[in-house]
Structures are given as C-alpha cells and as structure tokens.
User: Fold these one by one.
Assistant:
Number 1:
Amino acid sequence: MAQTIKGEYLKGLKFTGSTPKKEKTESGEKIRHIPFERDLKPGDVLDAKVTKAGLAIVTADGHKHIVEVTTAQRKQLEADLAKDQGSDTPAA
C-alpha cells in the first residue's frame, strides 16, 4: 500500500529506471534498456516510517531514502502516517 508523503520531503530525491528501446542489428532485433533519472513523485512512495534517523522512504524503484526531519515535523508525520494506516482497516 502506497503511503501519502508530502512533496516537501521528496525534494532532491531521484527515481531511477530504464525504458526499453528496440534496435535493429545485423543479427536481428535487440532490446536495449536506456537508463533515466527523474525527480521522485509522491506516487512513487511504497512505504514510509518515522525512525530515530528521520523519515525512511521506500520507493517503487527499490531504493530506501532517509530524510532528516525536525521534532515538529516528526510529530506531524507520525500523526499523518497513523491516519493513513487507520484508513486501510476494513469497517466491521
């Protein structure tokens, strides 16, 4: 389940991946993967947790990022993430 993280915590973080491109060679067609890098978007976040080190973010490209947060930001994030997790539980 993807977590909702504000864009302010994603500034400076990158999403990396590759796009397939077909190329013709002497021996036939070949697929070549061209790497790319772009700014991380909130939709790329798979999971996020507040830790002692800061905000731990796991992204769809398989990377884990640690973002430093202030005490006030930490309390707000804990409340926001708890609210997100509470919305996943089905109604009784």
Number 2:
Amino acid sequence: MAAITRDEMETTVVNNLGQDYVMIWSNVARDISKLEKHPRVEIINKGRHGQTRWVEARVPMGEWNPVSGVKRAESTNKRVWTDEERQAAAERLAKAREART
C-alpha cells in the first residue's frame, strides 16, 4: 500500500459538548510526535495505514483551548528563590544596568 499524499494528511479535532474530553485524530507526523510527548494527552489508539502512522488521542475538556490547542503543562522544575538570592540578583541587575548607561 502506497503512502498517502500531502493533501490526504490531516489532524482533526472533535469537541463534543456532551463529553468531558476533546478527541484528536491525526496522520501528520509532526502532530503525532507532539501529541505523544504532551503529558496531558492520552493516546487512545494508534496504528499504520500503509506507510503512514496515525494516532487517536483525547484531552480533558478543561485542558483544551480552541485557539492554542492543548494547554501547556506547568513546569515542575521552577526555581524557588530565597530572599537572599532574589536580593543578590536584583543588585547584580542594577549594577549591570548602571554599567550600560
């Protein structure tokens, strides 16, 4: 079976208001990679049609934005600064700004 053409490649999003999640189907390699890597996306089914991969996934309704897609995950490695570190950084920044002018 031959690979599908570019005109046949698509990513489809179904937002059914009667469900608690948004369904996503794709046979676009770039979109599949992003869906598989995103922590908020649940892969329901995947396979191949000839040489072309496809994936079916779902996202909780609250994690979906029709303009920007799946909401970004909160970073778990945000640095928590102590008051001393914050003060030292502020002083370094002020010193650097003075040096520029």
Number 3:
Amino acid sequence: MVAIAGAIGTLIWIYANSARVPVEQAARWYTYVIGLLAYLAWALGISGGARDLVNISDDWSGVILAIAVFLLPGVDLAVSSRRRAA
C-alpha cells in the first residue's frame, strides 16, 4: 500500500512542480511516465514489501534498479532532445 501511495505522490510532485514554472518549461506527458517508472524501479530495489507485491526476487529487483538507473536518464534525454528539434 505504501508503494502505491508513493507512486501517486510521485505523480503529484511532478505536477505540482510543473505548475510553478512557465508553460514552455512545464513537464510533458512522458515526464510522468519516466518519473513513475523511476519510482517503481527504486521501490523494487529497496523495499521487500514492493518486491513481495509483484513477487520478484532480490536479485531481479537489483537488476531492474540497475537497468533503470542507466536507461531512464537516456530515454529522458532522447525524448526531450527530439522535442526540442521539432
């Protein structure tokens, strides 16, 4: 239940911070997806309860976290660079 609350909190945090900046700097839809994926990977990597919720091993949760740490910033950079070029 805490993991679900954290996921919702992540989305609210992105929205609230996006509302405080000019429209052209506001978070795009993909920011919410990347933020949610990052939170879920983090939760799986550190929380036994989150791992139990989706029934994965400690080893797999570490692999998911490691992949997310390297992959998600690259995805964010690629998507935001493509948006600026358009």
Number 4:
Amino acid sequence: MSRKRRPTYESNAHRATQDSAAERLGEYLGVGIKSTPKYCAYDWEVYGSAKGEPLLAIAEFKRRRKPRGAYPTLMISADKIMRCRACAAERGVSFWLVIEWDDGLGIWDDDGRELESEMGGRTFATRDAGDIEQVVYIPVADFNELPGFSF
C-alpha cells in the first residue's frame, strides 16, 4: 500500500533559509552539512568534515517565527519523527532536529524516547486536511542552545 503524498509547501525561499542555516551551522560546529533532495524524509546529512566523511547524523531543519521561549514545547508531525528515526537507524547514525527560532538556534539529539503525542497541527491557517494529524511535543528545554551562534 503506498502512502498518498501531501502537497508540498516548501518554496525556494524556504530552501534558501535552510541552506543558509546549514552553511552557518556547519561552520559553527566544524562539520560538513549536505542538503538532501526535495522529497527526502530529512533535510540534511551531517558529516565529520567538510570533505564528507564520516556520516555523523541526519537532520531535519525547521524555522519557527517565534522566540525560543514562546511555547514550552515544539510541535512536529509524529510521522516526520518516525520516518527520520527509521532513516537514522537504517544508516546507524544520530537524528538531529534543528530549530531556528527568532532569537537562537537549538539542536535536539534524538534519544529515542517516547514523546507526548496527540492529534493536532496547523489550525490557524490550515492548508489542507493533512495539516491536522498525529503530532508529538518535544520540550524546548531539551534542545541544546548554541551559545555564540550568530545569524
């Protein structure tokens, strides 16, 4: 059984924001970050060097137009987390969720624990029926803030 593909809302501007964050984060951490093709389950591959070896992690990038402390948790699609976890396990690497808030950047290094889950999603500006789905909540306090990271 194949899954019905949802509409894609990722624009060229979204990709530009993501690419800029990857470049800055790679320089900050001293790693190589390679963007993945548009329909990949995750956004980046993180390598131990700019030359591309070894693969350390896969990462999903999200931009939230709020300050880090606006909400106590970050809501994200449960399916997204599940697919990224499966890809990371298959490749034998870590899964990172990288969030750029208005006032900083944080990395959540997935430890595989069960996350609080419920039906939810985008309700203020729903784009399609798939915007309401099973979501998980990750405590913002669980994200490692990058001190000195500049935009």
